[in-house]
Predict the structure.
Amino acid sequence: MVQLNVNNKKTTSEITGNQETTNSNIVYDTRQLNLWYGNHHALKNIDLAIKENEVTAIIGPSGCGKSTYIKTLNRMVELVPSVKTSGEIIYRDRNIFDADYGVEELRTKVGMVFQKPNPFPKSIFDNIAYGPRIHGIKNKKTLDDIVEQSLRGAAIWDEVKDRLNENAYGLSGGQQQRICIARALAIEPDVILMDEPTSALDPISTLKVEELVQELKQNYSIIIVTHNMQQAARISDQTAFFLNGEVIEFDKTDTIFSTPSDKRTEDYISGRFG
Amino acid sequence: MVVREKFEHELRGVQEQFLKLSNLAITTLNKSIDALLNHDVDAALSIIENDIHINRMEEEINDRVILLLAKQQPVATDLRRLIVLLKAAHDMERVGDYAVNIAKENIRIGKADFVSPIKNIEEMRSKTITMLTEVMKAFIEENIEDARKIAELDDQVDQLYGQTIQQLLKVGAENPHMLSQVTQLSFVCRYLERSADHATNIAEQLFYLVKGRHYELNN
């Protein structure tokens, strides 16, 4: 049986063998990241240390750079023409911008779930088995195990176990989104990026995904962009508030939503601009 | 800039309701001492009958705050503002209850002459009323400097309370047949002292609202 749990994750200090390293539980360390779309300076001097096995929420008004930031973490942003970056994003002790860092290698470790559920027009089974097959897994029994474990991990196994060969398009929006999460889990990632994963879902489906995120953080590090302030407050451990391409405040979610130190953060979470 | 006009409007409404409740509770406490000093049993009865209005005002504040929480889901300072309003309204409602208790002691004392000088009780009343009035203003203005001064007055009320109880105990020891009224006047002092404590509670809540941390002001 394939285990999806990434219990054998190594900390930065273990990887480096450096006992002096203090950021042993940092999964992503962003240092002085700048990003330009042509002449538009979209991210400005971002410094963010994201901890493993936590949910980190990125909040901020439209156009503040939060989606750009999350798409930079798996280098998806490179798909946009005329993008230029400076600074570093250290993922597990390596700068993802290093010339010899393969983007496929990065994306194997960093899964992504998007705003709109985007299953492939294939069966539920093939959706989940797609990634593992690309990585060369052909054994039927192994694939069966991966599909079951991934669907269980995404809390949708019981709903779809009798219809694995049906097209994923036949599922509800909430179910499709959990299929997409299961698809991300199937490649055994280390980090899951979520870009407004519930904005297209009804309240019940939203709640299911939120509960799922809480369960998933035991085994994965999750970074979630959300426009829903209450969602950030409910499900995240840390919250970063972005404004005009800058990180205004990054702190424990409890602090951000009770006693933020910057007035702009308080104004935003209180619904006074945005 | 979005200003959440609806939220601000509703919040102002609840704050106005709090002011009304506070004014009524403070006036009632004041009247209860007036009635006591004048042996006015009719006034005491009226205070007891009218307490229901203070209770209803607190319930109304509770209902409005719950609706605001459910519909507007405020966070940070806005959330503390509402929670602290709930607590302050409860403190003021308790002041109304103490006025009722004083009115009941008044009825028990009836027309009997006081067994002890009541200058201290008048002074306690004066300081307590000042504390409650000032804390109500500070609360609405969110002025923590004034709130700190109010808490300082509480020490003076506590000191007066201690002195007065000592005096009353002495009277009681020397005149056992007056023990009943000594007890009733002691209770009156206790109710004033507790009312002053509620003013201090509100001052502490105001600090929590503004600073986001808990403060003990009467240590």
User: Anything to note?
Assistant: The CA atoms of residues 113 and 155 of chain B lie 30 Å apart. Chain B is about 85% helix and 0% strand. Chain B has a mean pLDDT of 94.
